[in-house]
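Our consortium's second objective concerns turning raw sequence data into structural hypotheses that experimental partners can test. To show how far this objective has progressed, the report includes one record in full. It was chosen at random from the queue rather than selected for favorable results. The single chain below, 144 residues long, was entered without modification.
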Amino acid sequence: MKSETSKGCPLHGAGVDARSLVGRRLTGVVGSWHVYGDDDPEGPLDVWLIDDQKTSVHITTGSDWCLVVEVSEPHTDYDMGDRGRITVGAAGGEVPFADHIGESVLAVREEHEPDSGRISLELTFPTGGVLCAGWAGDLRVTAV
């Protein structure tokens, strides 16, 4: 993965400069999931990283499959009728960021494409890393 400053997405702009995340201590993680009927939740669709300054950094995929990284507060649950519902709450073991609560971000790396902006973001913590990327329009959050 290249270590470059992301060029802005044509639809969503540049968002947060990933380098600004270095030194922030992660104090909480919130996620959103799509729930349809009795099926297991799908997602996360969104992840919000809460830092020691009470800043909330939102990570999700854009409609053009870019990776959106912006400062915004988590939204609330909502119902989509026969398409299911979106639930929002504290993220546990299903999101690898939870393993790094209490740790500071040591480094960031991102990758971008000229036509869609940022497509991946990797954050390194003292005990490991987390990669956020899009796959076919879905957010993928994995430990590295």
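The partners drew two points from this record. The beta strands are 26-35, 42-51, 56-61, 67-71, 78-79, 85-90, 107-113, 117-125, 128-135, 138-143. The longest strand covers residues 26-35. Both points have been shared with the crystallography group to help prioritize constructs.
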